[in-house]
Amino acid sequence: MLHATLRPSVVRMSTEPSSPPALAPIAERVAAPAHLPLPEVDGLVWRSLTLADAPALFALTAAVEEHDRHPFRTSLEETEEMFEGEWRDLARDTLVGLDVDGEPRAYASVDTRPGDASVVRAFVQGAVHPRWRGRGVGRQVLAWSTGRARQLLAASGKELPARIAGYVQDGDAPECRLFEAAGYTANRYYSTLRRDLSLPVPEVALGDGLRVVPWSPELDEATRLAHNDAFRDHWGSEPATPESWVHGRSMFAPEWSVLVVDDAAPDGVAPRASTGGGPVVAGYLLSGRYEQDWPVAGYSSGYTETLGVRREYRGRRIALALLSAGMTAYQAGGVEFAELDVDTENPSGAHGLYASLGYEKKDGSRMYSIEL
Fold first, then answer.
1. Is there a domain that residue 7 lies in?
2. What's the gap between Cα 134 and its chain centre?
3. How far apart are CA 96 and CA 49, in angstroms?
4. Using the 8-state DSSP alphabet, how is residue 252 labeled?
5. How far apart are CA 63 and CA 303, in angstroms?
6. Which CATH number belongs to the domain containing residue 252 in this structure?
7. Same domain for 80 and 214?
8. Residue numbers of the chain with a pLDDT score lower than 70
9. What is the pLDDT of residue 5?
10. Is residue 157 domain-shared with residue 243, that is, in the same domain?
């Protein structure tokens, strides 16, 4: 099963949503099971995960990633993030199978996000040790995860379209077959792009009072507001709450993250920081530093986690300025490539923008989902 989350990067432009069809009550649509049986596998006993399991879970994940030749490695810090989030109920939303020596040989985690406002989502994640495959472990763990996801969606009480989703690397054929056999469909595809930083980085001039500034904690709330505005017309994106916005930052690289701000935005153009003061963040590029991936890739890189531009500021070269500033920061950090992920169905013209800057496809992944 999948053991790492996708690192998305998307530039957004306006797309108007169509009118949603009438829906049956969510409790009927998701068909949540009243009872959730544990997997039955000779040699494994099952319980919930705890934070104390993080080092052993990290070792399991590393064994899976090496065996499956995935183009990344999950750090211990990223593993520990699985246990974070005030909205999480680890006792009910996680599962680990232990062998006779108490070593984890399979695990599952189901997660939701509190801010979902147009589609309520549950994400499944897990792994099976290579030596324990071929015994139906993955099939049973995914069945448990899907059942728990249905329970979480029903318990949300949100009368919205619903989705159960998991992410798979394009080259992982067994994983794809596992999801397809469980009733999931590949509904979205993503490309990982990279750009050689030995090439010149273009200089981009911004007018009308816009300026590029480094990310700072003081502007982070304003950046969250900009993100929610930039991504409100993006397929699969939901509003980030203050809690979910800061979740998952173990690999965050503030020194490689930049913003475009408008100090003189007129009232009503965009909401300002929650303090009521400070500039409007018109666009942002947030970066990650995944040094554990570099030996696998064979080169060092700066990773663009998220890139967005507010609706009111599109068409003003802000995305280009952010990417250029980000690449300049990566160069100053001494790394060799810039990397990001992009939705292949992105309607904003992002692929053309990235190609014009010298980005090329490295590999890809896909989202499997059950739409409810």
1. no
2. 29
3. 6
4. B
5. 24
6. 3.40.630.30
7. no
8. 1-21, 236, 265-277, 346-350
9. 44
10. no
Q: What is the pLDDT of residues 133-177, one digit of tens each?
A: 999 999 999 999 999 999 999 999 999 999 999 999 998 999 999
CA distances to 48, 54, 161 from 153, rounded to whole Å, are 20, 26, 10
Q: Residue 13 falls within a domain, yes or no? A: no
Say yes or no: 65 and 115 in one domain.
Answer: yes
In a domain, 9, yes or no: no
Tokens (6 digits) for 292? 């554990």
DSSP state of 207: -
pLDDT tens digit sequence for 41-93? 999 999 999 999 999 999 999 999 999 999 999 999 999 999 998 889 999 99
Between the alpha carbon of residue 8 and those of residues 11, 61, 192, 308, 343, the distances in Å are 10, 21, 9, 11, 8
Indicate if 186 and 201 belong to the same structural domain: no
Last residue in a domain, options 190, 205, 237: 190
Find the domain containing 166 and state its range.
26-190
Output the CA torsion 256→123→232→352 (10° steps): 60
pLDDT for res 159? 92
* Residue found under tokens 């590393």: 62
Angle between helices 173-181 and 137-156 (to 10 degrees): 50
Residue 18 placed within a domain: no
Same domain (yes/no): 48, 88? yes
- Please report where in the chains the tokens 């969606």 appear, as a residue: 153
Residue type, 104: P
